[in-house]
């Protein structure tokens, strides 16, 4: 659920004309609550004079170019919004742009960042356009948003020319890393940190904004090499490698471990709550139905369905589900068990970080009707013998202990209210 206003943070370094067009489009086409924060990095044209005359702009003036990351962090330090939008000054926004971005950002608690589609970008966000100049931009954007209404695309990387982030995410993972100096790779670095914290990144497909691209970089008056965008990218890619220990794109696009969630079901209502809690982390869902009443629910979630037997114990039910699992890792859930929003993020982190020598992971299993919490192995390699779930010390392989919790409905409600 959306809350509060959006702090729009814009950096300027000359390019007066682009800045005027950007601010005018924001004022004209933004219906959501927002504040404008502009950080000027040493403009020598009319930019600062113009900005000082704008009553709706909070202005920070730097005497020299502090770079993209440092400038954005200055804006972030004084921002008061619950949502933070980093926006280049060489952009022109279109009707409903921020509404689409916010709808995508708050579609799920574990979505941390969203971005638009555009005419100019690296990565996944560029699309072909039919308009020739800005006079035709809104007509194109209107048709685009009709075709893409409500659509979202999950990605590993969003570009910083227009990047909307929950303030709570930045409070957790930090702002832009200022080691990247003038610019390039600071947005990749932020995306990687958010992903490693278990947040998902999405393109809001209905949102389209116009982007000129590289106008500030191309105008930086330094020596010839530092004025070259490709040169800067090479330097900062090396900085990222030194920080992370390997190429940052290898880490960003590293494939997560595939996970099958094996669920024992008894009632349709309880199964719906369980499947809602895992559908975003499961690559495959397998439902073992003890009562024969849950086949329709399983079908609605595209889950594989196994008709179970009420007389079988949970180990026998799980064994039948694991036999059908196609993923190398399996998460086991008993009747009435759920995964909270916060724990879903932690499982996503586990999927990203787990290594092949880990055969099982202990989690804390809590239920409202039990006085004691049980530490059990519930995240396993498919080959893990289920007879060792309660006592993995008898299985001479690598079993990790985690702070992941699997809980019952009343416990989930209580914990989510706290967190």
TrEMBL record:
<dbReference type="InterPro" id="IPR029044">
    <property type="entry name" value="Nucleotide-diphossugar_trans"/>
</dbReference>
<dbReference type="InterPro" id="IPR001173">
    <property type="entry name" value="Glyco_trans_2-like"/>
</dbReference>
<feature type="domain" description="Glycosyltransferase 2-like">
    <location>
        <begin position="7"/>
        <end position="173"/>
    </location>
</feature>
<dbReference type="Pfam" id="PF00535">
    <property type="entry name" value="Glycos_transf_2"/>
</dbReference>
<protein>
    <submittedName>
        <fullName>Glycosyltransferase family 2 protein</fullName>
    </submittedName>
</protein>
């Amino acid at each position: 659920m959306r809350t509060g206003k959006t702090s729009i943070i814009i950096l300027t370094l000359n390019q007066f004309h682009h800045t005027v067009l950007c601010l005018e489009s924001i004022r004209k086409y933004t219906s959501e609550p927002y504040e404008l924060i502009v950080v000027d990095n040493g403009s020598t044209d009319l930019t600062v004079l113009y900005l000082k005359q704008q009553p709706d702009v909070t202005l920070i003036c730097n005497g020299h170019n502090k770079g993209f990351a440092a400038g954005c962090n200055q804006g972030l330090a004084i921002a008061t919004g619950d949502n933070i939008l980093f926006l280049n000054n060489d952009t022109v926004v279109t009707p409903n742009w921020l509404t689409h971005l916010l709808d995508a950002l708050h579609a799920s608690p574990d979505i941390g960042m969203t971005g638009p589609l555009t005419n100019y970008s690296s990565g996944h966000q560029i699309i072909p356009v039919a308009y020739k100049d800005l006079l035709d931009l809104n007509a194109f954007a209107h048709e685009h948003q009709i075709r893409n209404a409500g659509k979202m695309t999950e990605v590993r990387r969003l570009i910083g020319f227009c990047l909307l982030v929950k303030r709570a995410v930045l409070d957790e993972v930090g702002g832009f890393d200022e080691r990247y100096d003038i610019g390039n790779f600071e947005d990749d670095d932020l995306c990687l940190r958010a992903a490693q914290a278990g947040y998902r990144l999405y393109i809001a497909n209905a949102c389209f904004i116009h982007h000129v691209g590289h106008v500030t970089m191309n105008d930086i008056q330094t020596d010839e090499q530092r004025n070259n965008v490709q040169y800067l990218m090479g330097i900062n890619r090396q900085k990222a490698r030194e920080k992370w220990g390997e190429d940052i794109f290898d880490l960003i696009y590293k494939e997560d471990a595939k996970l099958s969630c094996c669920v024992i079901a008894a009632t349709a209502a309880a199964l719906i709550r369980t499947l809602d809690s895992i559908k975003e982390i499961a690559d495959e869902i397998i439902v073992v139905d003890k009562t024969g009443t849950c086949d329709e629910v399983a079908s609605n979630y595209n889950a594989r369905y196994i008709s179970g037997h009420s007389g079988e114990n949970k180990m026998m039910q799980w064994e039948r589900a694991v036999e059908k699992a196609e993923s190398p890792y399996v998460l086991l859930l008993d009747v009435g068990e759920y995964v909270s929003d916060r724990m879903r993020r932690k499982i996503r982190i586990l999927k990203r970080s787990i290594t092949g020598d880990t055969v099982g992971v202990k989690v804390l299993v809590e239920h409202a009707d039990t006085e004691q919490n049980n530490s059990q192995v519930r995240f396993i390699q498919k080959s893990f013998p289920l007879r060792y779930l309660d006592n993995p010390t008898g299985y001479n392989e690598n079993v990790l202990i985690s702070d992941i919790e699997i809980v019952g409905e009343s416990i989930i409600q209580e914990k989510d209210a706290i967190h």
